[in-house]
Amino acid sequence: IQHTTRIMGTLFETDMMDIIFVSVLTFWLIFVYFVKNYDYWRHRGVPHVPAWFPLGSFPQLVFGRVHHTVVIDQAYKQFSNERFFGIIEVRTPILVIKDPDLIRDILSKNFNHFTDRCIPEMNSKFEYLNRNLFTKKGNEWKEMRIKLTPAYTICKMKMMFFLVKTCSDQLKKAIEDKVEACSVVNMNDIVLRFIMDLIGSCAFGIDVNTLFNRDSYFYRITKNILRRDGPHLLKSYLVKSFPIFHNVSLFNMIKPE
């Protein structure tokens, strides 16, 4: 019995050592995977926002505490005397351009080198959502851009002014109604509804009227796409950390409906 006990104890110790070794090795590999790009901008002499393992330059973004535009604005002011600066989004190096001349070169003179966005295409299950200028790349992007250009002529834009004014008048009335009722105005909600009315009128030619229709289906679907709850933030972080998850159904950011 004692012999058997010693054998079992030895096996247990061996198993524990294996588990500890595998755990330490796994953590070390994950650590290296994340931090290998954290010195990317320092090695190139580019002013940058320091990155923190495993959240990158802006940990508060991962937790949804502030909006993306707020932290970029803070970094912009931090490097007020620089023409550009670098950041790390989770583990991806990104260069933020501030100088108007550099921006002009990128968007005009050397645009052929900067046509692609960093937004990956969605799961093939949502192929129809990939048919836009934000996800298309290379020649496909150029072909789609050529097709859409006629929709944004000066004449077409002027034709939208009436629709924009109509939606703006509705926004004004919606806020006035809230004020008269002495109720709290949720500006995030009301501005989102205003934007939905604009998109519905100008892009689709329909009056979705989300400002006054609180149960608008159009609004509910959009709200679902733009949601920022805990599960969505976790999925977003994992997809940015491990791009291979992007095509895994479990990590879809948009519900099938």
Automatic annotation (TrEMBL):
It is found in: Endoplasmic reticulum membrane; Microsome membrane. Its main location: endoplasmic reticulum. InterPro entries: Cyt_P450, Cyt_P450_E_grp-II, Cyt_P450_sf, Insect_CytP450_Detox. One of its GO terms (cellular component) is endoplasmic reticulum membrane. Gene3D superfamilies: Cytochrome P450. The chain crosses the membrane at residues 16-35. The keyword Coiled coil does not apply. It comes from the Eukaryota. The keyword Aminoacyl-tRNA synthetase does not apply. Keywords: Endoplasmic reticulum, Heme, Iron, Membrane, Metal-binding, Microsome, Monooxygenase, Oxidoreductase, Transmembrane, Transmembrane helix. One of its GO terms (molecular function) is monooxygenase activity. Pfam families: p450. Signal peptide: none annotated. It is a peripheral membrane protein. Its cofactor is heme. Belongs to the cytochrome P450 family. PANTHER family: CYP9F3-RELATED, CYTOCHROME P450. This is Cytochrome P450. It comes from Graphocephala atropunctata.
